[in-house]
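Pasting as-is:
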Amino acid sequence: MSLAKARQQAAPLDRTTPKARIYAMLDTDGDGVASRHDYFVRIERAQQATGRTDDDPMVVAARTTGERAWAAMDSNNDGVMTFDEYASWVDAEKFDTICKFALGALFDLADADQDGSLHRSEFTMLRQALGNRADNADAAFEALDADGDGRVSRDEYLASIRAYVTGDDSPMGEALY
């Protein structure tokens, strides 16, 4: 499919749904379609924000799982993913078998001390690298840090994203988008 034709099919009619909000974040350059470049620039931003090198195992893992996720999302292998492609593709099963690993690798990339949790600064840095505003990331951190210990675990983080994607209650998702 040509990029022009993809752009015509790209924008969701209702931009307030979780899938539409996530898709808008995936379209990092705002041109109406999520391209391969859009998807991978998010990993590059996270790498730059953490100061990790290209050969760092966490960067390699993020890229590898990102490649798997992109290949699954861009099923026709044309280098762009329209909103319709994304909306018909993403669901609980895809999250559990594909997205969880890509998002988990990004979480691990941001987890500087590798303790399985993100402190507020790590969380905010990651979410900004992925395309969220800092104030939204701060509110999302508050929503996830229910016990007030100043940390968000990997499991809490992934469960909240899964809930948002699949239409379940997700205070973090509501705060981020």
